[in-house]
Amino acid sequence: HGNLTQLGWAYFGLSKVHYRQGQCAQALEMLGRGLSAVSEDPGARVTELALITLRGCVRARMGDVAGAAADIATARARVDPKAAPAAFLQADAYGFFADACFQILRNGSDAQILRSAEMACAALKRAARVFPAAKPASLLWNGVLQATRGASARAERSLRQALADAEQMSLVFERQRAAEEISRLSGTPAGR
After folding, report:
1. What are the tens digits of pLDDT across the range 118-168?
2. Residue from 116, 114, 109 nearest 71 by CA
3. pTM for the full model?
């Protein structure tokens, strides 16, 4: 079973690269393979959660709101935001969980998806206490949550801290996303 979990990690990593490069069809294919690999391993729940939450992001980006919402519902049933994470992979999963939620919320209000976003942000905040490298992602998604709630000043503080921390830790994705969210919040194009 350990080899299946490692195979799941590999597919997760490949999928993450494809997603971040905008290659959603390839990411979805890798995620399907990863989920198939870990489906027979009861010890691979964290890996499976990471694959499911990333698939939710990919589906949301591709416009498959129903598929993304289904993945969010699955993740919501599996995440305990009060439990301390045992692996950094959980922090990654919580970040993708939040990302998928906010992609859907940008297209309209949905109380259940908002509750899921709040759950993802709470779980990510807890993970950041255990894994400092998760702090920029936690600040990023909590900033987006504050913006969604209309708390612009709090959102901007959180996003600016996410940007600073991501720059300090050389976390390119979080730095880029924080800059994009700051631009979205201020209404100016990124990079200005």
Report:
1. 999 999 999 999 999 999 999 999 999 999 999 999 999 999 999 999 999
2. 116
3. 0.90
- Do 53 and 12 meet the contact criterion of CB atoms below 8 Å apart? no
170 to each of 36, 49, 141, 162, how far by Cα in Å?
33, 26, 18, 12
Q: Which residues contact 107 (CB under 8 A, 6 or more apart)?
A: 65
Q: Which residues contact 37 (CB under 8 A, 6 or more apart)?
A: 4, 7, 8, 11
For residues 104 and 191, give the distance between their C-alpha atoms in angstroms, rounded to a whole number.
25
**Cα separation of 40 and 140, whole Å?**
34
- Nearest Cα neighbor of 19 from 55, 63, 43, 48 is 55
Between CA 40 and CA 147 the distance in angstroms is 40
SS3 content of the chain, % helix, strand, coil (to 5): 80, 0, 20
Our measurement of the distance from residue 7's CA atom to the centroid of its chain's CA atoms, rounded to an integer in Å, reads 21
